[in-house]
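Re: that backbone. C-alpha cells:
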C-alpha cells in the first residue's frame, strides 16, 4: 500500500490506521509520505480559514474557488505519532526517513530565509519532530 501526501487530509486518522492495518496481508508493507503537522506551512494551513486558502489556490490555478483544494487536518501527522499508531495496531516500523526541506515560500526570499532559520532552531531542539515531512515504511508481521 502506498499513500503519498494524503493522510494529512484524513479527519479520522485513527480509523485510517485501523483500515491500513486490516488491509495489509501478513508480511505486507505500507509506504507513506506525510507532510508533518509541525512544519510551518502546516501550522499556517491550520490557522487560515478554509475559504481564504481556497481563494488563494483558485487565483494560482485560474479556477473557481469551489472547485479547488480540500481541508487538511494534520491529525497526529508527526513521525513519533505515526510510529505510535503503528505500534498500537501491531505493525512494525521498518524505516523512517525525515525531510527538512520543501519548496514552500521559495519564491518569496524573506519568508523563505525566516523559515529556514526556524527549521535550524527547531531541529536543534527536537530533531525528529522538526521534520517538515517524513516517509515511513510499516509491515504487518507474518
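Recovered sequence:
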Amino acid at each position: 500500500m502506498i499513500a503519498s501526501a494524503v493522510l494529512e487530509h484524513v479527519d479520522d486518522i485513527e480509523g485510517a490506521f485501523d483500515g491500513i492495518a486490516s488491509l495489509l496481508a501478513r508480511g505486507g508493507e505500507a509506504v507513506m509520505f506525510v507532510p508533518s503537522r509541525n512544519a510551518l506551512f502546516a501550522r499556517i494551513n491550520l490557522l487560515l480559514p478554509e475559504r481564504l486558502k481556497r481563494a488563494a489556490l483558485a487565483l494560482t490555478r485560474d479556477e473557481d474557488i469551489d472547485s479547488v483544494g480540500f481541508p487538511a487536518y494534520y491529525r497526529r501527522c508527526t513521525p513519533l505519532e505515526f510510529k505510535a499508531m503503528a505500534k498500537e495496531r501491531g505493525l512494525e516500523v521498518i524505516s523512517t526517513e525525515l525531510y527538512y526541506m520543501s519548496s514552500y515560500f521559495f519564491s518569496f526570499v524573506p519568508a523563505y530565509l525566516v523559515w529556514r532559520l526556524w527549521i535550524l532552531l527547531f531541529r536543534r531542539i527536537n530533531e525528529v519532530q522538526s521534520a517538515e515531512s517524513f516517509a515511513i515504511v510499516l509491515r504487518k508481521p507474518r
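The chain has one domain: 2-139. The chain has a mean pLDDT of 90.
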